[in-house]
């Protein structure tokens, strides 16, 4: 599905599905911020109260963890939102015909 880190391919290499419909927008970033905020703040608070390391050690620990988790979670969430968009046949400005 992905070509590179977060860029979508033009089409699926297995079934040939084109990703013209795919527009995840800011959804993955919003969900990633909320999820990572919960995980990272909880982790930082736990480490601070349990071990009380100096501030520089917090920076060495949590900066790489934040970057790695952010990129990983963004990729997963972008794929999930595009898959849900395909499954539900969602499109911009398209209303349900009920």
What would the keywords be for this entry?
single chain; 98 residues; mainly alpha; two-stranded antiparallel sheet; 2 helices; elongated; ABC1_TM_sf; ATP binding; transmembrane
Characterization of the model:
- This protein is elongated.
- It is 59% helix and 4% strand.
- The protein has a domain at 23-87.
- The chain contains two helices and two strands.
- A hairpin with a 3-residue loop joins strand 1 (2-3) and strand 2.
- It starts with a strand and ends in an 11-residue tail after the last helix.
- The chain has a two-stranded antiparallel ribbon with strand order 1-2.
- It is mainly alpha-helical.
At a glance:
Its main location: membrane. The protein has two helices and two strands, in the order E-E-H-H.
For the biggest β-sheet, the strand order reads: 1-2
Q: Characterize the biggest β-sheet.
A: 2 strands, antiparallel
**Series of secondary-structure elements, N-terminal to C-terminal:** EEHH
Proportion in helices: 55-70%
Beta-strand content bin = under 5%
Spans where pLDDT lies below 50 across 5 or more residues: none
Structural class: mainly alpha
End-to-end span in angstroms? 32 Å
**Count of strand segments:** 2
Question: Overall mean pLDDT score?
Answer: 91
Radius of gyration: 18 Å
Total of helices:
2
Shape: elongated
């Amino acid at each position: 599905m992905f070509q590179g880190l977060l860029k979508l391919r033009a089409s699926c290499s297995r079934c040939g599905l084109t990703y013209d419909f795919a527009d995840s927008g800011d959804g993955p970033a919003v969900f990633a911020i909320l999820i990572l905020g919960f995980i990272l703040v909880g982790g930082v608070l736990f480490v601070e109260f349990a071990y009380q390391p100096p501030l520089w050690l917090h920076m060495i620990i949590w900066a790489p963890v934040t970057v790695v988790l952010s990129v990983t979670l963004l990729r997963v969430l972008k794929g999930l939102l595009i898959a849900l968009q395909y499954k539900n046949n969602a499109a911009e400005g398209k209303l349900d015909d009920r």
